[in-house]
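Input:
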Amino acid sequence: MDDHIQFKSLTRLDESLLAHIPPFSLLEHSQIREILDHATVRRYAEGVPVFCEGDPAERFFMVLDGYIRVLRITPCGEQVIALHIPSGQLFGIAKAIGRDAYPATAVTASEAIILSWPTQIWDYFVVNYPGFATETYKVVGERMGELNMRVVELATQQVEQRVANTLLRLVNQTGRKVEGGIEVDFSITRQDLSEMTATTLHTISRLLSAWEKQGLVKSRRKHIVVSDPQRLVALGQHHA
Amino acid sequence: MDDHIQFKSLTRLDESLLAHIPPFSLLEHSQIREILDHATVRRYAEGVPVFCEGDPAERFFMVLDGYIRVLRITPCGEQVIALHIPSGQLFGIAKAIGRDAYPATAVTASEAIILSWPTQIWDYFVVNYPGFATETYKVVGERMGELNMRVVELATQQVEQRVANTLLRLVNQTGRKVEGGIEVDFSITRQDLSEMTATTLHTISRLLSAWEKQGLVKSRRKHIVVSDPQRLVALGQHHA
DNA sequence: TATAAACTTTGCGCTAGCACAACCTTTGTT
DNA sequence: AACAAAGGTTGTGCTAGCGCAAAGTTTATA
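Output:
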């Protein structure tokens, strides 16, 4: 992970990149310049690990473009996808929650451009950049909220509802308008969806087939379009 | 919730109460005095709500003695128990994660003595008391870790394993040595355990009965003693 | 001391969704 | 063009664990 290409010397990053992103939105242009000058940029292909669970948290990251998938692997080798992170968000911020190793693995869910900084300057950021800490902890809070929601869903809902809700969340958070509905903005297999909803790829396949027949979704290999969010919401709700 | 009894005027709290508790352990006695003087103390009976999901987060809390149960209630009225908080820990720290309403409900799991402070002085604490922020975020990190672990467990394990692991965690975190094993240190019903493990009280009852026959646990109404942690650990592990 | 309320146990039948298996389709590679 | 590899579909049978039901036990209340 030390082969980071230092784009900053090639393509000088524009300050406007960060100006509107919450943790930096309160800062002066000069401060953003400073932040960018400390950053390393790297382009990742799809499906590439950015860091792994248990690695020492030497850097923290921000998605500039693309999506990150956060996952954990059980002792028995099963994957559980915890979360997707869209562009504009920090991740790998172990330091913020008092850890010195990453608590989960981060893999690119699409091609992605990622900024990163050495963890040592975290405290400097917190002290010197107003709003940075606050906004960061807001993100932590949101992630906790999502985790919590997943626990509740896993504990109380049927597979069909979990999948419906997960799919809705995906298109809400990372959806792209296409003709005929909203499409999940990165490659996503049945296997992936099953690892998000604690079921099997077979069950997902059956569900999507059924939904497609009813005109709720349209899916091709690695692509899912939600064409009737309304009815999907209804499916996700009640206990029947 | 405004009938807080101001014990502080009656029984002046001793500084040694907080001196060894992480978020305060780095502080001078005078600072702890100051903190205590701002605190409200209240004794709660068992099963009493301290705050409810969605309430404005006007105060933050610390368990001085007893246990707190954190839970969420679904639209359909089902409860999911997220977490138990033992004495010495902060809770209701919505402010720390950028919220202004409590994200879950907190109920006493036993008789409890609880300190609380108005949320407005949170920032003062963070700025003026070294180590307070860091230690607090460590707690946030640990809670995230627990949530994460629960998601993984719910997603990959069978009921028997989940219950075994949950029970082990309970006795590890809140266990009290008794003759014949380690006992969960607060009242706990089959219903409670089922709400922690996403199953039914019936299944819990059957499991405990079976385990009792095998000499793994001993349980009476509202009490559970783990007598053979070793074998329980084994049960919690493998996929069979 | 009787009665109610809360908690627990146990039995039985059913079904959601998994495991297994076979086959198909699309994409990438040589 | 042929093959391999990754991803997707669909069928069949099975079972973990739930829903329902009924009865037992302990604790609280009148």
